[in-house]
Amino acid sequence: MLRYVTHQRNLFSACLLTFALALTACGGGGGGETPGDGGTGGTPPEAPTWPQTLEFRDFTGVQAYFRIAGSGGTGHGGGGGSSCQTCITVYGIAQSSLEMGKLLPDWKTYSDWPAPYNSKLFSELPIDYSTKTAVVLEDLGSGDRYQYAVKKVEEFAEAVTITVLKCTVYEVYADSATIQLGLLIPKTTKPIQVVLVQSGKPTFPAYGPNGLGAC
Q1: 14-63: per-residue pLDDT in tens?
Q2: Could you give the CA distance from residue 1 to residue 4 in angstroms, rounded to a whole number?
Q3: DSSP string, 142-211
Q4: Of all helices (H) and strands (E), which one includes residue 132?
Q5: Which residues lie below 8 Å from residue 82, measured CB to CB, with a gap of 6+?
Q6: What is the pTM of this model?
Q7: What is the pLDDT of residue 174?
Q8: CA angle (183 as vertex; 117, 135 as ends), nearest 5
Protein backbone atom coordinates (compact mmCIF):
# COMPACT_ATOMS: atom_id res chain seq x y z
CA MET A 1 0.00 0.00 0.00
CA LEU A 2 2.78 2.42 0.91
CA ARG A 3 4.51 1.64 -2.39
CA TYR A 4 1.29 2.50 -4.27
CA VAL A 5 0.91 5.86 -2.49
CA THR A 6 4.54 6.75 -3.13
CA HIS A 7 4.09 5.91 -6.80
CA GLN A 8 1.01 8.16 -7.01
CA ARG A 9 2.86 11.05 -5.35
CA ASN A 10 5.77 10.71 -7.77
CA LEU A 11 3.37 10.67 -10.71
CA PHE A 12 1.59 13.78 -9.42
CA SER A 13 4.91 15.60 -8.91
CA ALA A 14 6.02 14.74 -12.45
CA CYS A 15 2.74 16.04 -13.90
CA LEU A 16 3.00 19.24 -11.86
CA LEU A 17 6.58 19.82 -13.06
CA THR A 18 5.56 19.24 -16.69
CA PHE A 19 2.70 21.74 -16.36
CA ALA A 20 5.00 24.37 -14.82
CA LEU A 21 7.54 24.00 -17.62
CA ALA A 22 4.82 24.29 -20.26
CA LEU A 23 3.43 27.43 -18.60
CA THR A 24 6.88 29.03 -18.55
CA ALA A 25 7.47 28.25 -22.23
CA CYS A 26 4.18 29.93 -23.15
CA GLY A 27 5.06 33.12 -21.28
CA GLY A 28 2.68 32.48 -18.42
CA GLY A 29 3.00 33.66 -14.89
CA GLY A 30 3.21 37.36 -15.80
CA GLY A 31 6.95 37.26 -16.38
CA GLY A 32 6.88 38.19 -20.10
CA GLU A 33 7.66 41.67 -21.44
CA THR A 34 5.01 43.81 -23.11
CA PRO A 35 5.56 44.01 -26.91
CA GLY A 36 6.82 47.34 -28.19
CA ASP A 37 3.72 47.68 -30.37
CA GLY A 38 1.41 48.11 -27.39
CA GLY A 39 0.63 44.43 -26.99
CA THR A 40 -0.95 43.78 -30.39
CA GLY A 41 1.73 41.30 -31.35
CA GLY A 42 2.38 42.93 -34.74
CA THR A 43 5.41 44.76 -36.11
CA PRO A 44 5.53 48.48 -35.15
CA PRO A 45 5.20 50.79 -38.20
CA GLU A 46 8.46 52.20 -39.48
CA ALA A 47 9.00 55.95 -39.30
CA PRO A 48 9.00 57.58 -42.78
CA THR A 49 12.36 58.35 -44.32
CA TRP A 50 12.75 61.93 -45.55
CA PRO A 51 12.85 63.24 -48.14
CA GLN A 52 10.37 61.29 -50.25
CA THR A 53 10.25 61.91 -54.00
CA LEU A 54 6.80 62.95 -55.26
CA GLU A 55 5.34 62.61 -58.72
CA PHE A 56 4.47 65.87 -60.48
CA ARG A 57 2.69 66.87 -63.68
CA ASP A 58 1.66 70.04 -65.47
CA PHE A 59 -1.98 71.13 -65.54
CA THR A 60 -2.66 68.88 -68.57
CA GLY A 61 -1.42 65.77 -66.78
CA VAL A 62 1.94 65.44 -68.58
CA GLN A 63 5.31 67.17 -68.20
CA ALA A 64 5.42 69.53 -71.16
CA TYR A 65 3.26 72.58 -70.39
CA PHE A 66 4.56 73.99 -67.11
CA ARG A 67 4.60 77.55 -68.40
CA ILE A 68 1.11 78.96 -67.90
CA ALA A 69 1.66 82.71 -68.41
CA GLY A 70 4.33 85.29 -69.10
CA SER A 71 6.17 87.25 -71.76
CA GLY A 72 6.67 86.06 -75.31
CA GLY A 73 3.07 84.93 -75.72
CA THR A 74 -0.52 85.71 -74.85
CA GLY A 75 0.02 85.08 -71.16
CA HIS A 76 -1.08 87.24 -68.28
CA GLY A 77 2.24 87.75 -66.54
CA GLY A 78 4.07 89.77 -69.17
CA GLY A 79 5.30 93.24 -68.43
CA GLY A 80 7.80 94.80 -66.10
CA GLY A 81 10.04 92.41 -64.27
CA SER A 82 12.78 92.42 -61.67
CA SER A 83 16.57 92.51 -61.87
CA CYS A 84 16.72 89.50 -59.54
CA GLN A 85 17.55 86.41 -61.59
CA THR A 86 17.02 83.89 -58.80
CA CYS A 87 13.90 85.19 -57.06
CA ILE A 88 11.37 82.58 -58.11
CA THR A 89 8.61 82.19 -55.51
CA VAL A 90 5.39 80.33 -54.81
CA TYR A 91 2.67 82.57 -56.27
CA GLY A 92 -0.09 80.50 -54.71
CA ILE A 93 -1.75 77.11 -54.37
CA ALA A 94 -5.24 75.84 -55.12
CA GLN A 95 -7.05 72.92 -53.51
CA SER A 96 -10.26 73.31 -55.54
CA SER A 97 -11.66 74.85 -58.72
CA LEU A 98 -13.02 77.70 -56.61
CA GLU A 99 -9.58 78.45 -55.19
CA MET A 100 -8.07 78.23 -58.67
CA GLY A 101 -10.58 80.81 -59.90
CA LYS A 102 -9.54 83.17 -57.11
CA LEU A 103 -5.83 82.53 -57.70
CA LEU A 104 -5.95 83.06 -61.47
CA PRO A 105 -9.14 85.08 -62.05
CA ASP A 106 -10.22 85.24 -65.70
CA TRP A 107 -6.91 83.74 -66.83
CA LYS A 108 -7.10 81.33 -69.74
CA THR A 109 -4.77 78.58 -70.86
CA TYR A 110 -2.74 78.87 -74.06
CA SER A 111 -4.53 78.05 -77.30
CA ASP A 112 -1.80 75.61 -78.35
CA TRP A 113 -2.32 73.37 -75.33
CA PRO A 114 -3.87 69.98 -76.19
CA ALA A 115 -7.65 69.62 -76.00
CA PRO A 116 -9.59 69.69 -73.73
CA TYR A 117 -7.17 71.95 -71.84
CA ASN A 118 -6.65 74.71 -74.42
CA SER A 119 -8.25 78.17 -74.27
CA LYS A 120 -10.01 77.42 -70.98
CA LEU A 121 -10.28 79.30 -67.75
CA PHE A 122 -7.88 77.72 -65.30
CA SER A 123 -10.79 77.17 -62.93
CA GLU A 124 -12.44 75.01 -65.63
CA LEU A 125 -9.54 72.59 -66.06
CA PRO A 126 -10.46 68.95 -65.27
CA ILE A 127 -8.17 68.62 -62.26
CA ASP A 128 -8.90 66.00 -59.59
CA TYR A 129 -8.45 68.13 -56.49
CA SER A 130 -9.30 65.19 -54.24
CA THR A 131 -5.86 63.75 -55.02
CA LYS A 132 -3.94 66.77 -56.36
CA THR A 133 -2.76 70.18 -55.19
CA ALA A 134 -2.20 72.84 -57.86
CA VAL A 135 0.88 75.02 -57.38
CA VAL A 136 1.68 78.24 -59.27
CA LEU A 137 5.23 79.58 -59.24
CA GLU A 138 6.24 83.10 -60.26
CA ASP A 139 9.54 84.55 -61.46
CA LEU A 140 9.65 88.35 -61.56
CA GLY A 141 13.11 88.31 -63.13
CA SER A 142 12.24 86.33 -66.22
CA GLY A 143 12.30 86.89 -69.96
CA ASP A 144 12.56 85.07 -73.25
CA ARG A 145 16.27 84.49 -72.81
CA TYR A 146 15.59 82.04 -69.98
CA GLN A 147 14.41 78.46 -69.98
CA TYR A 148 12.95 76.49 -67.06
CA ALA A 149 12.68 72.86 -66.05
CA VAL A 150 10.99 71.42 -62.98
CA LYS A 151 13.63 68.96 -61.78
CA LYS A 152 12.02 67.30 -58.77
CA VAL A 153 9.46 67.57 -56.00
CA GLU A 154 10.37 66.24 -52.56
CA GLU A 155 8.36 65.89 -49.38
CA PHE A 156 10.11 66.52 -46.09
CA ALA A 157 8.75 66.16 -42.57
CA GLU A 158 7.68 69.80 -42.39
CA ALA A 159 7.33 70.97 -46.02
CA VAL A 160 7.28 70.13 -49.72
CA THR A 161 10.16 71.47 -51.83
CA ILE A 162 10.00 72.08 -55.59
CA THR A 163 13.35 72.32 -57.37
CA VAL A 164 13.41 74.36 -60.60
CA LEU A 165 16.30 74.74 -63.05
CA LYS A 166 16.67 78.14 -64.72
CA CYS A 167 19.23 78.68 -67.48
CA THR A 168 20.02 81.08 -70.34
CA VAL A 169 19.23 80.14 -73.95
CA TYR A 170 19.91 83.37 -75.91
CA GLU A 171 23.15 85.32 -75.94
CA VAL A 172 21.60 88.74 -76.49
CA TYR A 173 18.02 89.28 -75.37
CA ALA A 174 17.70 92.25 -73.04
CA ASP A 175 14.11 91.69 -71.95
CA SER A 176 12.64 91.70 -68.48
CA ALA A 177 9.31 90.18 -67.62
CA THR A 178 7.29 88.06 -65.23
CA ILE A 179 6.46 84.42 -65.83
CA GLN A 180 4.23 81.89 -64.09
CA LEU A 181 4.71 78.14 -63.99
CA GLY A 182 2.05 75.67 -62.91
CA LEU A 183 2.23 72.09 -61.71
CA LEU A 184 0.22 69.43 -59.93
CA ILE A 185 1.59 67.49 -56.96
CA PRO A 186 0.00 64.87 -54.71
CA LYS A 187 -2.55 66.31 -52.29
CA THR A 188 -0.81 68.01 -49.39
CA THR A 189 -1.48 70.50 -46.61
CA LYS A 190 2.21 71.07 -45.86
CA PRO A 191 3.88 74.41 -46.67
CA ILE A 192 5.35 74.50 -50.18
CA GLN A 193 8.67 76.12 -51.01
CA VAL A 194 10.68 76.46 -54.21
CA VAL A 195 14.43 76.18 -54.74
CA LEU A 196 16.10 77.50 -57.91
CA VAL A 197 19.20 75.76 -59.24
CA GLN A 198 21.51 76.58 -62.14
CA SER A 199 22.97 74.45 -64.90
CA GLY A 200 26.55 74.75 -63.73
CA LYS A 201 27.64 75.80 -67.21
CA PRO A 202 29.34 79.14 -67.99
CA THR A 203 27.07 82.05 -68.81
CA PHE A 204 27.11 83.87 -72.14
CA PRO A 205 29.73 86.66 -72.26
CA ALA A 206 27.04 89.30 -72.72
CA TYR A 207 25.60 88.44 -69.29
CA GLY A 208 28.85 87.92 -67.39
CA PRO A 209 30.11 87.76 -64.78
CA ASN A 210 26.87 87.34 -62.83
CA GLY A 211 24.60 85.90 -65.48
CA LEU A 212 22.91 82.53 -65.13
CA GLY A 213 24.58 79.51 -66.70
CA ALA A 214 23.77 78.48 -70.25
CA CYS A 215 21.27 75.68 -70.86
Answers
A1: 444 454 444 444 454 444 555 555 555 677 788 889 999 999 999 999 99
A2: 5
A3: E-TTEEEEEEEEEE-SS-EEEEEEEEE--SS----EEEEEEEEEE---S-EEEEEE--SSPPPGGGTTTS
A4: strand 132-142
A5: 140, 141, 176, 178
A6: 0.76
A7: 62
A8: 115
